[in-house]
Design a protein that fits this description.
This protein is mainly beta and 190 residues long. 10% of the residues lie in helices and 39% in strands.
Length: 190
């Protein structure tokens, strides 16, 4: 199955306009899942096995998108693994990957000097668990919370998890689990 990326603009009356495919070199790119737009870049994944993460540059002058490229994801797109669901927060990229055998949420920092994402780090417990798969990271700046899905019973059900405090993500990648507990207590005391 081939899936292309469409967009719909919100009309002045609040209704959504008709869906139309993105224009530019991206027109021939078959994508899977929902893309994420950040800083004039469209982060997306290509279906099939293995799934990989790509980025397409948006040109606001021509209202077109370049053909997606995965060069900056050399450390993310591990051969033989699925690396999908990218979500960017500033210079941090969250994504799901089965690079170690099960789906977990990983984090990578942007390396400006090299023009690519650094080698990713798997987020530790309580975000990732040994018994379950974790998917679809999404961060809300409005309430400083990381949301994600967890397969809790062999693929039969999913639950959403919320982890507070944006700086916690960076601390977790360095093993700062105790600080997560502190952040939770701090948030509850508000």
């Amino acid at each position: 199955m081939t899936a292309f990326i469409y967009r719909s603009e919100k009309q002045p009356n609040g209704d959504w306009g008709p869906g139309a495919p993105l224009e530019g070199d991206i027109e021939s790119f078959s994508a899977a899942g929902a893309p994420m737009f950040y800083d004039n870049k469209l982060y997306l994944r290509q279906g099939g096995y293995p799934e990989r993460t790509f980025v397409s540059e948006y040109d606001p002058n021509t209202d077109t998108f370049a053909y997606p490229d995965d060069t900056e994801f050399v450390n993310i797109n591990k051969v033989g693994s699925n690396n999908t669901g990218p979500f960017r927060i500033g210079n941090t990229l969250l994504f799901q990957s089965d690079r170690d055998g099960t789906y977990d949420i990983w984090m990578s920092e942007w390396n400006e000097g090299e023009g690519r994402w650094d080698v990713p780090q798997k987020l530790p417990s309580p975000i990732n668990t040994d018994a379950n798969d974790e998917y679809t990271p999404w961060y809300s700046q409005a309430n400083s919370t990381l949301y994600f899905s967890r397969n809790v019973s062999g693929g039969q059900a999913y639950q959403s998890q919320a982890i507070p405090e944006p700086s916690t993500l960076a601390l977790l990648s360095m093993g700062g689990v105790a600080l997560l507990a502190y952040a939770r207590r701090k948030r509850r005391s508000r």
